[in-house]
Design goal:
The chain has a 6-stranded mixed beta sheet, with helices on both faces. It is an alpha/beta fold and 225 residues long. It contains 8 helices and 6 strands; from the N terminus they run H-H-E-E-H-H-E-H-E-H-E-E-H-H. It has a single domain (2-223), classed as 3-Layer(aba) Sandwich (Uracil-DNA Glycosylase, subunit E), CATH 3.40.470.
Length: 225
């Protein structure tokens, strides 16, 4: 538990990408019209969940008016609504919604993080920014006893794949990312792939709640093995 607290404290104070710190702060100053009375977080967003989690969910980056506003991963936008409903249905969360700190949310045997801790312009972090944030991503991977990794989107899959190869957790070539991808790893670990619950996927029907639920149902099954 102390390791995650230390990582989160260091993440919040990170200055590795000055351009992202400025962008997040500018968004917090100008705000979206619907949130003019909200106090924005406007800093790197720490991980959230159980420090002893066996399930690690990995997304891309905080939303400018979602997690960058609330200060909690996947909180304050439609993507987060989808994620926490799915986690609740699979028994990984005590409630189906995440509003912000103090709302009573508790993740059960689950930790949620991103490959990038700052909200990037157009939700597209650069290669250099991902590399800089990889420092924290690697520390999180080492701090939790995760056995199942769920990658939400291709960049999360790539980020996990790099660390898996570095730690020699796979004796074979990992498959390319696709929704529903499953890769067995050493030590009874598993890598699962899912489309990101972004609006471009959920509004178009590319990702349905049934498809999303199936991923976390499989994660639950793998943890029981």
């Amino acid at each position: 538990m102390a390791k995650i607290k230390t990582i989160n404290r260091n993440v919040i104070g990170c200055e590795r990408c000055p351009e992202l710190r400025e962008y997040c702060a500018e968004v917090a100053r100008t705000k979206r019209r619907a949130y003019q009375d909200h106090r924005y977080w406007g800093r790197p967003v720490p991980v959230v969940g159980d420090p002893r989690a066996r399930l690690l969910v990995v997304g891309l980056a905080p939303g400018a008016h979602g997690a960058n506003r609330t200060g909690r991963m996947f909180t304050g936008d439609r993507s987060g609504e989808w994620l926490f409903r799915a986690l609740h249905r699979a028994g990984f969360a005590n409630q189906p919604e995440s509003v912000g700190p103090g709302d009573g949310l508790e993740l059960l045997d689950c930790l949620v993080t991103n490959v990038c801790h700052c909200a990037p312009p157009k939700n597209r972090p650069t290669r250099e920014q991902l590399q800089a944030c990889g420092h924290w991503f690697e520390q999180v991977i080492d701090a939790v006893p995760a056995r199942v990794f769920v990658a939400l989107g291709g960049l999360a899959w790539q980020g996990l794949a790099k660390l898996i190869r570095r730690r020699e957790w796979s004796s074979q070539r990992l498959p390319k990312f696709t929704h529903g991808a499953v890769a067995p790893l050493t030590g009874n670990r598993w890598l699962l792939g899912s489309y990101h619950p972004s609006q471009q996927n959920t509004f178009t029907g590319r990702l349905t709640e049934q498809m999303f639920d199936a991923v976390f149902s499989r994660a639950r099954t793998k943890l029981a093995q």
